[in-house]
Amino acid sequence: MSLEVLLANSAWLQALTSEEQIRVKSDIFVKKTQSEAYVCRRGDPAGYWMGVINGFVKINNVGLSGKSTTLIGLAPGSWFGEGSLLKKETLLYDVVALGNTELALMPKETFFWLLDRSISFNRYLISQLNERLGQFIGAMENERLLDVESRLARSIATMFKTWSPMKEMVLKISQEEVGQLAGLSRQRVNAALKVLEEHQLIKMSFGEIHILNLEGLSKFQP
């Protein structure tokens, strides 16, 4: 999709005044990132609020031992980075493109300008932060209580929770990357994906996972 389509389908923008919308549309710009490239790095200053136009990104961290862990994946239609902006701190994570990716970047000056004058924008951010907290609590609960197939199903569904104007929901990332999102090995992911396909929740093709039943994924238990 285009930046215009992303903005037209972003609920927070539609609630702004005409003046606010004009400034936002004037200040936001598009950044294109190649597959596997860093969008931004841990320790970088938080300078933008970002939205995914095309492609996918993962929020990632690497421990002192060199082990990498993926905290969350974000599909088109998702906005992120408000936490670091609000805390006025450097980034505590890496943001990595999964596939060729286009992002919408709102400068922090515009972000705080909206924050100071728009009640609707503040309400959106509160809802967004609450949703993100729920995702991380859910991920912890899933890891402790659910079987492999259910954990994987919910991890995939979480990526598409944010409204996306795509006609078809397609996850174009490797099985290894899917495993990082769910905290599973590639071998376990492969077997679990086959189970989800047998239940007609997804359809797999080369390098792609087609989402057939998002609600079913989010509630799946074998």
Number of domains: 2
Could you tell me the number of beta strands?
9
Indicate the proportion of strand residues: 25-35%
Helix count from the secondary structure assignment: 10
CATH superfamily of the largest domain: Jelly Rolls
Note the main sheet: 6 strands, antiparallel
CATH hierarchy class name of the largest domain: Mainly Beta
Class by SSE composition:
alpha+beta
Query: H/E element string?
Result: HHHEEEEEHEHHHEHHEEH
Envelope shape:
globular
Q: What's the short version?
A:
By secondary structure, this protein is of the alpha+beta class. The protein has helices at 3-8, 11-14, 18-27, 82-87, 108-117, 119-145, 148-159, 175-182, 186-198, 214-218; strands at residues 29-33, 38-40, 48-62, 68-74, 79-80, 94-107, 169-171, 202-205, 208-211.
Brief descriptors of the model:
single chain; 222 residues; Jelly Rolls; Arc Repressor Mutant, subunit A; 2 domains; six-stranded antiparallel sheet; three-stranded antiparallel sheet; 26% strand; globular
Question: Can you offer a commentary on this structure?
Answer:
This protein has 222 residues and is an alpha+beta fold. It has two domains: 3-139, Jelly Rolls, CATH 2.60.120; 147-218, Orthogonal Bundle (Arc Repressor Mutant, subunit A), CATH 1.10.10.10. 45% of the residues lie in helices and 26% in strands. It has helices at residues 3-8, 11-14, 18-27, 82-87, 108-117, 119-145, 148-159, 175-182, 186-198, 214-218; strands at 29-33, 38-40, 48-62, 68-74, 79-80, 94-107, 169-171, 202-205, 208-211. Strands 1, 2, 3, 4, 5 and 6 form a six-stranded antiparallel sheet that branches. The protein has a three-stranded antiparallel sheet with strand order 7-9-8. 34% of the residues are buried.
